[in-house]
Amino acid sequence: MDVSLRHLPRWLRNLLLFPLLFLNGWLLTLTIDYLQPMISIVLDYPVRFLGQCGWSRHWSLALVVKPGPVS
What we know:
mainly alpha
């Protein structure tokens, strides 16, 4: 028995995929909220170090969280 989403009508596919996308977004939000204190602690060390080297907190934070090159 070959069951595939391609064989379903478009409205039914959308009806099935929307709750999955919503739940994945909700779980991602919960995970980020759970890990936020640890992420803040890890990022605070280089920001403090750059602040001690004379950088303003604004620029040191921008340098630490700057995204890397996209490959």
